[in-house]
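Long-time lurker, finally posting.

We've been working with EamA domain-containing protein (Lentinula aff. detonsa) and I want a structural starting point before designing mutants. I don't trust myself to interpret raw outputs, so I'm hoping someone here can both generate the structure tokens and explain anything notable. Sequence follows.
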Amino acid sequence: MVQQPTSGRRKPFVALILALGGFVAQTQLTHQVLTVMNYDRPFFVIYVTQSVFTVSVIIHLVYLATTTKDSISSLSKGLNITIAQRLRPGSSSQLIRFPYLRFFLIVLTLTAGFTTPTLLWCIGISLSSSSDVTVIWNTNAFFAYLISVTLLGRQHQHRKFVAVVLATIGVVLVIYGGSIVSENNVLHTRLPSRSVGDLLALLASILYAGYQLFYDAFIEPPLVPLQDLDAFSSESTPLIEEYKDAIYPSPYGLESSFWTSMIGLCTMSLLWTVFPVLKGLGVEEFSLPIDPRTVLAILGAAFSGAMFMTGTMMLLASWGAITTSVTSLLTIVLVFLTDLMFGAAISIWSIVGSLVTAAAMLVLADSSLVSSILVPTTQESDA
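Top reply, 14 upvotes:
Generated this for you. Predicted structure of EamA domain-containing protein:
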């Protein structure tokens, strides 16, 4: 097996740029599709977006094969070993026997854990403004902290508790501001239930925090060291010889791209069955968009969503759930500025709430972000 060098601390920042840029673009394009373009099919938009996730690992493999001397075959073999070891942490005795049952259960859990809050976010953004939903969504950092302390038994920190309180106040102000936006504003007619949309975004944020903690816990255990696998290989059957040229551990981000693709494949394979149910319940009538602008906007939102998801999964593997959530502070400013560009209705309470939430995130960042960036704990190779 081929050892990967372990350098490249800057690579998480590339993932951060992907996540931030993808989130802002997906947010604004989705908002335009569901409101301005009047294509009120949030589940279909989410289905298309998450189905596009499938190409993440393919694009990543092609990129690595064209920019390094590694072949797609060697990278794929190493990825197979990485995934098998991730599903059976600490075991080198079953290198080749892939744990399919556990694999399918993990993929289903990740898909359900990500799809549920994303759908709520999508519905919320069709009822409220992009900036409101972004502020509320980004409070998942604080819910992740609360869950980790109250349910997972991690150590309580007073600084983080203060940040949680500030964030809660900020969210309340944003929701209150959404409920009193002037009815004379032109865009208000497109956002008849803004406070409801904000509340849905809040629920989505809580569920997304749980998803991040689950993935963080899943990706945290260290993989079997290369020397242990090589020792096992020397005693093993000829089948192991096929893996002698495997690149292990996988290059930075490749495992995250794989899990992102699996979420996309699971979405594409299973969630289409929900469309007849939604139609029967009168929730959402399935119909393909016919306006070329709407089609392009949906595709743009889909590929932007794939960028966001891939970058976020890489950051979760590198920095953990709470620190990754803290970095999403930047999206509040970016989405707020793009909201102003598109002429969205912004209340003074929404502005104050955004600033309070930003202050809370800075308090949290002061105690966790800097140390996590300076001493990254990624379980994936930085090659």
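Before you design anything, note these points.
The chain has one domain: 2-374.
The first helix runs from residue 11 to 36.
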